[in-house]
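sorry for the late reply, my laptop died twice this morning and i had to redo everyting from scratch. anyway the thing you sent over, i finally got around to it. pasting the sequence first so we're on the same page, its 328 residues, then the predicted structure underneath. double check i copied it right bc i was rushing
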Amino acid sequence: MERTLLNYKDILWRYLDRISDQVVALLDMDLTIVDCNGGFQRWLGLEKTPVGKNLKEFLKKEEGAFAPFPPDWEAGMIEEPSWDRKNLPEVRVTFLLGPSIIQTLTCHLFRLGDRILLIGEKPELYPSEIISKMSVLNNELAEITRQLNQKNRELEKANAVISRLMNTDPLTDLANRRYFQEILIRSLSFAARKNSPLSLVMADLDHFKSVNDRYGHDQGDQVLIAFSRLLKEHSRTEDLPARFGGEEFLVLLPGTNLQEAAVFAERIRLRLMEIRFQPGPERITASFGVTSSTRGDTPESLIKRVDTALYQAKGAGRNRVVLLPAEG
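ok and here's the structure:
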């Protein structure tokens, strides 16, 4: 029977030490740890046994002093247990388990002569498990953030592609009519506020219909692409060349007066005459209208005036630049 009892105690302690998550420690009256189970060691997050150390080393300090237990902790000492859970006194002990990890353990304290048996209620998670889970969560959050940033970059690229498709003429890669009119509104407003010059050039390829009729639309497209490339090559970063429709083009020239815009148009006209198309017409020419904005101009009035200048250029024999100031 005695041997059976010893085996029973041995099995019970081995269970408490190696398997159970219950926190058990035997302390002397100055709170030196005399013995403890594995659950207590795991609670403290230690790899080696804390036996021989003082419990105060692991308790939270308050105002420079240790506060191992509440002030009335001795009143919570159990000398004659009733073994009624509802009536069993509890003491809450606050541990400092890391630089910033504070954890409270609900304990029962049993007086065993000059020793104290501390039995803690099993916590939902040990501090070491909390740290591990926090580390996992932080890694997951970092991965989610990385993926979100990647998705945002992909979205930005997709939006840039969509914006380009919406704002660009697919054949010539110039701004389309809708986008040009949008920028013209802003540019007119800015020029009026800053009292800065703003000019507009309108170009129309001469006899372009005959090019399509004689050489085919594919060759006509090559002429449009070549002229568009010419406009881009001679435009500044702040300028905006656009295909306004068919063989008609517009170039917005911020900070450019009427005479400077005329020089720009003449340079394009001469350069176009140098280009040879094979197969195709021996020479392509264009007519140009040029005007500048004045206070009170609207996008409609400015486009109407430059269109009038272009009409005059065509009426005068084509392949020329005609200027039409705002005053008439």
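The two ends are 124 Å apart (CA to CA).
thats about all i looked at so far, will dig more tmrw
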